[in-house]
Every structure is written in structure tokens, then in C-alpha cells.
Amino acid sequence: MAACAIRRGLLSTASKYNNLKCTHRLLSAIEFNSGLDLKRPQALCSACGLSSFQQTRFMSSRNRAEGKILEPVGVFEALKQHGKYETGQLFLHSIFGYRGIVLFPWHARLYDRDVSPAATDSKPDTAGHGSKEVKGKMHTYYQVLIDTRDCPHISQRSQTEAVTFLANHDDSRALYAIPGLDYVSHEDILPYNSTEQVPIQHELFERFLMFSPSKNPPFTARDTLRAWQEKNHPWLELSDVHRETTENIRVTVIPFYMGMREAQNSHVYWWRYCIRLENLSNDVVQLRERHWRIFSLSGTLETVRGRGVVGKEPVLSREQPAFQYSSHVSLQAPSGHMWGTFCFERTDGSHFDVRIPPFSLESNKYDKAPPAGYPL
């Protein structure tokens, strides 16, 4: 049985809609819970194996007017347990709930400090954050476009301008962002199909993709997407992912090298890093402070403390378990390390520290021209 992909509004009175029934076939397999939470499927769909989702929490990104609860967007497809999703695959994000479409995959090394899988790659802890050697395992991520209709409704939980570049001039601090571009892990993809020829609203959708009804998925890459990927590959490429869990708060860090600029007769190397915080428990906690240690190959060690992150002190709860943001760091050396802690507060007023997994800041081995931007 195929299942209709359903979007749910974020209603303060949503609890009265528990166990809602309607003609959409997905509802026969999913229990609606109060607040924002769509719980794991309770029945098996023979076509897509919905009951095989493991501990996945389905979050909506819609903040719709009261009385408008559900919005069909398409038909769920089977999850890919093996292999990767292709360019043009439509999906819902299993955590943040937005609609998106896959542009192309990245194969990254995942360094998970919570597990020690057998792998050929490993990284010793060079940042003084414990002596544990971390094994690396190859994992698939995807470059995706986010539907702009959903961006306003996830802005409190996830930045929708996750990809930034150095500008095409000599100002070493000038950055520009590509809105609605994200990196998504394979397990966060809930694939679906749609009969719409333009199912995703984004300024780059029709510049990067074309409707090809004879193909599966029916959206294929234009030459502009291939050219853009090739020209910007060094600045887009995702190579390492770092993950660690402390007291049921999981921190995932993805660093990106952005390039080098000259400033006041010295070289300044730039990186961006994307961080996702996930509450794996039912407790409500709030991020209060950050504490960073930044080591440069030049021999400097900088300490940064401050309230919250990117001007926010996000609350992580069962209903809204995750928060994602991006930031930047510059060094006057081609490499370094970052590590630290986030201080969280419980509802009883007690505090605890959550470790940020140490990660390397590595520059590319050869100089490259600035990124080529995207078609306007």
C-alpha cells in the first residue's frame, strides 16, 4: 500500500486532533500525537516499509492557520536501505519537516564518538578532548534545495542559508549566502513523488532541474546544475562529519573550508561549520552558553564564551527536538582545531555541559579561484 505524504500544521490546540482519520492512506499507518510530533508508524506499509523507520521523529514545518491541519504533497516511496537517492528525488525532512529536492550526493567520513565501527579510516583525538581514537565510516549526505514556502516555518529551528561563500573580491570578511540550500543525511530523507511539474518553489529549481516524465525520478539535472557543481565543488564539498552525545544531547558538526584571503600583508583562512543539536530524550532543556577552544597551527589558542548561539537560546523538547545553525571562523594559519562545550539548563534550574566533538580545520592543498556563484 502506498502512502500519501502529509504535512501537519503547528497548532497550539493540536492535541484535540489525536488519532485523526481521513482518506489519505498515510493516516492509516501513522498515529497523530499532540503538539508537533508525528510518531513512528504503527502499521506496516508493504510498499514502503513504514514500520521499519527506526526511532525517527517526524516533524512538521508548517505553521498554518487553525482549522487547516493537513496538506497532501504527494505519495511516499520506499526508503532506500541500500544505495543512494538520485538527482531530482523529492523528500520530506524527517526532523525539520520541510519539502526539498535532491541536487546531488556527497560521500563523507562520519566520525561518531558514540560508536566504534570497523573502518579503515580513523582520526586520533588531537585536541586534548580525551584519548579516544575515533573510527571513520563512509556515509551519504545530499545537497538539496528547500521549498521556500517552508523556510519561514523552520526559521526558529534551522537556518535556511546553510551555505556561504567568500565574496568575489578582496574584502577578507565579505560573505554571501545561498538561501534555501542544505546538507541532508541519508536517514533524514523521506522520499515521495508528486504529479506536479514544479513541486518545489525555489528560485534555482527550474534553472537547475527539468521535468522529464519518462524518468524516475521525473526531474533531471540541467547543464547549469552540472556546471555549477563542477565550478563550486571545492567550496560545497562535504568530507568529514563529527558526532558525539552527552546526556542524551547529540551534537553533529560539519566543517567546510571556504578559502584564503590576504589582509594586511597576512593570509586569512576561512571555514564555516554547521552544527545540529538533537535532544534524544523526552526532557525539556535549553541551551544557555557556548564555550569554544580554537587552536591555530600558528600556535595560538583562543577561548570564546558567550550566551546561546547565533543570538538564540533554543529550547529542545520532545515536540521540537532539534536545532541547526551555521557559523564561521578564520585563522591566520592553514589549519587548526576546534572543540568545546554547550551549557544546557534543565527545567529544575540545574545545568550540565554537552561536549562538542573536536574537529579539524584543514585548508585545501592548492589555491583555487573564488566560487563562481549561481545563475541569476
Q: What can you tell me about this protein's structure?
A:
- InterPro entries: ApaG_domain, ApaG_sf, Hemimethylated_DNA-bd_dom, Hemimethylated_DNA-bd_sf.
- It comes from Triplophysa rosa (Cave loach).
- Interacts with PCNA and POLD2. Interacts with SSBP1. Interacts with PRIMPOL; leading to enhance DNA polymerase activity of PRIMPOL. Interacts with POLH. Interacts with POLD1; leading to stimulate DNA polymerase activity of POLD1.
- It holds the Pfam family YccV-like.
- This is Polymerase delta-interacting protein 2.
- The protein has 376 residues and is mainly β.
- Helix content is 6%, strand content 44%.
- The chain has three helices and 23 strands.
- It has helices spanning 151-154, 205-208, 223-236; strands spanning 3-8, 37-38, 58-59, 70-76, 90-93, 99-112, 121-123, 134-146, 163-166, 175-178, 181-185, 189-193, 209-211, 219-221, 240-246, 249-263, 266-279, 285-296, 301-307, 315-316, 322-331, 335-346, 351-362.
- The strands form five sheets. Strands 1, 4, 5, 6, 7, 8, 11, 12, 15, 16, 17 and 21 form a twelve-stranded mixed β-sheet that branches. Strands 18, 19, 20, 22 and 23 form a five-stranded antiparallel β-sheet that branches.
- It is globular, with a radius of gyration of 21 Å.
- Residues 1-68 and 365-376 have low confidence and may be disordered.
